Amino acid sequence: MTTDSYPVRTLRAPWGHLIVFGGKDVECRSQPTSYRGWFWVHQGLQIDLEGEHLVAASALTLGAIIGAARIVDCVQDWHSAWAVPGTYHWVLEDRVYLPDPLRLRGKQNWWYDAATLSLPDPASLHAAPRALAVPDATARRAGRAGTPPAAPRTVTPPRIGGAVMSPDTGRKAR
Q1: Selecting from 3.40.50.1010, 3.90.226.10, 2.30.130.30, 2.30.130.10, what CATH number does the domain 8-144 have?
Q2: Structural domain boundaries of the chain?
Q3: I need a labelling partner for 146 at 20 to 30 A (CA). Which of 99, 104, 161, 164 fits?
Q4: Which pLDDT tens digit goes with each residue over 51-63?
Q5: 53 and 30 in contact (C-beta within 8 Å)?
Q6: Cα(63)–Cα(46) distance, rounded to whole angstroms?
Q7: Based on the number of CB atoms within 10 Å of its own CB, is 161 exposed (0-12), middle (13-18) or buried (19 or more)?
Q8: What share of the chain is helix, strand, coil (3-state, %, to 5)?
Q9: Cis peptide bond upstream of 99, omega within 30
Q10: What mean pLDDT comes out for the span 132-158?
């Protein structure tokens, strides 16, 4: 383990994708974090069934660090369409994408990997084009409440190197 780099957080798809490419400005968690600063967004191999209707599966890069974001606060009452009541809201700013995703096996909690030392500083990267509008809270809740979800929104992030993995790779049955 090395601490000469930023920590990495593995998120299920499509949540990592929505942070980097879709304008998701808060990460909802059951536990608070005292960490403030940049972290690498690693999108895991699993697709969360609650969010699968938000992004076309063909747009997802799974099992890779796809970008970075900066945690600036942790509160329970953030004013965002993405904020889920009753959770801790890790407030995110400066979300940027990695032009060449770095394929790594994900882990739970915060983790470090020597391979991230070769990545550029997140502050030198660019924000992704915002091809995805932030959905309103009604559209998000429709998918969670069991009512028919909104049609998939297609977001095609820049792809420079690296293949897009099958949307079924690593998906566990519930």
Answers
A1: 2.30.130.30
A2: 8-144
A3: 164
A4: 989 998 889 999 9
A5: no
A6: 9
A7: exposed
A8: 15, 30, 55
A9: no
A10: 43
